[in-house]
Each structure stands twice: as structure tokens, then as C-alpha cells.
Amino acid sequence: MTPLLGAGELADDVVTAAVRLLGCTLESDTPDGTVAVRLVEVEAYRGADDPASHGFRGRTPRNAVMFGPAGHLYVYFVYGMHFCANVSCLVDGEPGAVLLRGGELVSDPGVARLRRPTARRDVDLARGPARMAALLGLRREHDGLDVTDPTSPVRLRAGSPVDPARVRSGPRVGVVAAHDVPWRFWVDGEPAVSAYRRAGASGRRK
DNA sequence: CTGCTGATCTGCT
DNA sequence: GCAGATCAGCAGA
């Protein structure tokens, strides 16, 4: 059991924070039991000068957590149906977050199946941001939770470091604005990395 | 594996 | 009004 990640490791800039999050383990106490996921795909968003970021046009009740201190959950509702979860970064007052896009299950598969009975294969359980949020049971009421607090129902562990040679980057998924900014990061070869293509173009990336 | 469709929340125009 | 940091189910190749 590795120690919790410290908020200071996410405070400097969003890209460093995103890469640091790869390989970390997010564990959540759900009504069905504890579920844990090893992060293999993330995306960085910086509010101040990033048109793709929810924080770009200023603070609203929905994105307020992005403007707070690092290490807190930013959970939002999309497409009238799904939740997506981010971990806030940067110092208090500066908007930044890392979207959790994909992860590998590292806890009891039976508990995970209770949470996502429709998943066809185990690798699909947390493959994609809304799937991960559903698996971990993250909803609006988890918005703002401190994942660096050992007493929190959702915690972020440092995990085993990812070999830097296996980290890949590319354009963010589904983002129209600033699609040339390669702020999606993933661990090469992991099956739980989502297969979606970037907005407005076709073809695979490497 | 690719491409389409429906679900109907949130903040901006 | 409308586009969006989406997914599941189904059809067709």
C-alpha cells in the first residue's frame, strides 16, 4: 500500500501534474465496496489561457473547484447523462485540473461488476472518463472532496512510477478548441486507454 | 472494428 | 437556442 499523493506534487503546472498522476491509484469507498483504479490516461486543462478548459471563461458554481487548491475532485455532469472526474491542480486561485480518462482495475472485480454490470470486458470498466466516474461512484456530491486526505472516501495513492519511456502524449479527445495542444497523456500499450479519436479529424495517433 | 443514434444537463450567446 | 472534456446499443462490413 503506497502513501497518498501530496497536493504539492500537483501544484506547479498542469502538464507535470498530469504525468505525475499516471500510474497513481485512485480508490473510492462505494456503497458496493472499495474500488481502486490505476490511472493510465489523463488530460490536462489550464484555465487561465486554455480555451478548452471549463475555467477559461471565469469561475461559475460548477467549475469552482478548479479555482481552489490542488488535490480536490472536480466532478461535473456532461451530455445530460454522464459524470466526469478531474483532480484539481495549481495553487489556490489559479484554475487547473486533470481529467481522469482511463484506468486499470486493481481491486476486486466482483465489486466492480456490481457498479458497472453492462461492461463487456474488464478492461472496459474504467476505459473512458464517464465509465471511470461510474465505476468509482463519483457524482455531484463528491465535487470538492480532498483526495489527499486519508479520511476522505476517495483517495489518491502515489502508486508505482510509470517508466517515462512508456508515456505518450497527443491532442485531447473531443476538444474542439486548442486541439493542437498535446495535453492528453497515456501509458503506451495499456488496453484501458480509450480508443476515441480527436475532434474534427480521423486516423490514429501514436 | 466503424459509424450512427439517443439520452436531455450546463453555461454561454 | 445550442454545442459540448460521452457512452451504450445496434447495424453493417
Automatic annotation (TrEMBL):
GO MF annotation: an example: DNA binding
Keywords linked to the UniProt accession: DNA damage, DNA repair, Hydrolase
Highest taxon above the source species: Bacteria
Keyword Chloroplast: no
GO biological process, one term: base-excision repair
UniProt keyword Oxidoreductase, yes or no: no
Top-level class of the enzyme under EC nomenclature: hydrolase
Enzyme Commission no: 3.2.2.-
Family to which this protein belongs: Belongs to the DNA glycosylase MPG family.
HAMAP family hit by this protein: 3MGH
Protein's UniProt name: Putative 3-methyladenine DNA glycosylase
